[in-house]
Amino acid sequence: MTIPTNRPLFLGLAMWSHNQWQKSLYGSGCKNSDRLARYAEVFNTVEGNTTFYATPAITTVKKWHDATPSDFRFTFKLPSTITHQNQLMHCDQLLADFLNVMAPLESKVGLWKIQLPANFGPDALPALKKFLQKIPKHLTYGVEVRHYAFFNKGDAEKTLNGLLIEHQANRIIMDSRPVFAAPPTSEAVIDAHQKKPHVPVHAIATAMQPMIRFIGHPEDLSNDPFFDNWLTRLPKWMADGKQPYLFIHTPDNVLAPELAIRLYQKLQQRIANSALSLPDIALPPEPEASPQITLL
């Protein structure tokens, strides 16, 4: 069941294609080319990270459009050439070329993600300000920062938040507490500890579509204490008319679909006696085993 866009929350994963989801999410016999369509039958948003590394062919963009219903929402990263190599400067043509290729999907993009590198600090805020002044205003943006100066509640963070509020850009919230609470005893957790930012969680909504990236603990129930804060914050945002995006990761993402649905159900239970409501979602049922024939 796909969550309609008039509902107050978008729920998704870090990707739509994973070989380990063949049984849990796609069902037996699902072709690789059909994975996005099967994914979109359960979740109504996804993190599109591939665009960070390379701009897809326009034929691929059209296929993504055709594989998803009208109420599905992608969140695509701007290319690394814009955010990391040029650090938002001298990239007008790069942005225009990228958006032109992505144009067939524009109506299905919930947020365009501006993920900035860890060395993009307070001194670079003028570049962010100029970039936000120039980008197309009819699109919705999310900005993810990783420099520690933006997490100490000092002048740099206040300036950043004020800039995002002024331009109605959403501050993307990275909640990596769960994964960093896990001991580095597996390759997946070690890799996550090396690659994911270990920064404080500042649950601020600078615009109407706050995005949370919840990087889960590999042990399912160990995630609950970290998600409790979101069981309070998300209903408040929804009641205020905001439309949050909630993305669930795990170190290897093998059981991310199951974790996402379980946490979503906890949120459903929390708002059960309020004016808010969320539709039920579930993974496809496992096919019944064929009856065994016994020869006597």
Automatic annotation (TrEMBL):
The record, for InterPro entries, names: DUF72, UPF0759_sf
The highest taxon in the source lineage is Bacteria
PANTHER family tied to this protein? UNCHARACTERIZED PROTEIN YECE (PTHR30348), UPF0759 PROTEIN YECE (PTHR30348:SF9)
This protein is called what?
A: DUF72 domain-containing protein
- Organismal lineage: Bacteria, Pseudomonadati, Pseudomonadota, Gammaproteobacteria, Vibrionales
